[in-house]
Amino acid sequence: MSAVRPRSLLSLILLGFGFVIVPLFVALGYAGVYVDRLSEQAHTTVYNAARAIQLSSNLDDSLTALERAARQHLVLDDEGLLEVYRNAHQQFRDNLTELRRFAATTTQQRLLNVLGEREQSLFDELTAEGAPDGLTQEAVTDRFIAMTQLADAVSTRSNDVIDQEVRRMQSLGATAQRWLFWMGAALLPLTLISAGVFTVLISRPIRGIDQAIRRLGAARFDEPITVSGPQDLQALGERLDWLRNRLIELENEKTRFLRHVSHELKTPLTAIRESSQLLSEEVVGPLNDEQREITTILDDSGRQLQGLIEDLLDFSRTQSQLPQLRLGQADLGEIAAEVLGRHRAAIRARDIHLDFREAKAPLRGDAEKLRTIVDNLVSNAIKFSPTGGRVRVTIEPDNEWVTLVVEDDGPGVPEGERTRIFEAFYQGGNQPEGYVKGTGLGLSITREYALAHGGRIEIGGAGDGTGGRFRVMLPLRGPAPQHAGTALPAAGKE
């Protein structure tokens, strides 16, 4: 099969042009043949008509000259006039011979033969020794009248032949018109079919390459890349598949690196958190107020560092594959209350006013990933709210969706950053002071988890100091199959 495939896309395009143009050239060739035939027929008809008219006129003139010379010879009986008659006779015979060449019918031939015989008979009688006494002026006149009638009949037949040639030319033109019509009716679909076939043959590999590049851009590396078509596009497909495998290797290396780094960071972090917890519990002795404040700072910083490490791990998992959901019954209201409880210390430390009214919002989903969604949004709201500001958390269930809205009094997200705020590692320009700089993965992970549940996340707030607003909408019945990724058995309610 590969032997008959074009070596390049250019060859396929040229081959397609050839298949499309060949029927048109065939039609033009036939049209040219018929035009040549019509032109030749028209030229022949016009020439024959003009020549026949001229010869008929010459025949009439020579017959008139014959009659005049013959009558003068009979009256005057002069040798000079007889010579004039002989010259007129020769002129008549020449015209008659030329006219026979254009006689297209047997009737014309017969009339010309009769005319020639009668003229020759009269000539023989007038030029013979001792012309007969019965050859009078009246008899000669009558015989010339008869020959003139024959000449008129020949002229009429010549006109009939011209009309016949004109009809033949018209018939040939009509035939050419029919041929060209039916040929066009047959070749037009063939041309359109050829154009359609080669359009598909050319566009299909291009479309395959486009889809392959889109899959690579979307980090969908599971499907091998194969491109059919010309050999150069097949080679391009092989290079894209090589690129896919290379990206898989790089992705695996990145995942291993993140896991290794996260593991190496977690080990000392665990020791730090356990030590700070032992100090907070006054295991090694009582603490004064300043020491308790230091242990609180250590514990909060440890939690922040643990959150950053978990963000790296979550991002690694979402990039290497679709999020795996452990689907089960969960209550978004209970999850939100639990998350807010974990942030009570940070809320009190910054004197933030929390507006939250717990409401039942049962839905089908992965409780742990729903907790991550709420935690990331609440953490951002606390982080960006000014001291003494307000954080509002609202949960609104309806017949099909559960809506989570988290608002704060911070600077908000400017219009120019809203298209990029959900990109991995992107951090906006309005960063608060006094906080450990984050990874820029929280909102990216939040969006991935919302999409995995078949939901969506929207951003509000004018970005002019009026605060930020994030709204997450999740379906009550859980994700559809195309959104769910790999759904694992529920591990039980947490």
From TrEMBL:
Gene Ontology annotations for the cellular component aspect, listed alphabetically: membrane
Gene Ontology molecular functions: phosphorelay sensor kinase activity
Presence of the UniProt keyword rRNA-binding in the record: no
Chain segments annotated as transmembrane: 12-35, 179-202
Catalytic activity: ATP + protein L-histidine = ADP + protein N-phospho-L-histidine
EC numbers for this chain: 2.7.13.3
UniProt keyword annotation of Protease present: no
Domain HAMP, chain residue ranges per copy: 200-252
Keywords: Kinase, Membrane, Phosphoprotein, Transferase, Transmembrane, Transmembrane helix, Two-component regulatory system
Domain Histidine kinase, first and last residues per copy: 260-478
Major enzyme class: transferase
PANTHER family: HISTIDINE KINASE 1, TWO-COMPONENT HISTIDINE KINASE
Protein name: histidine kinase
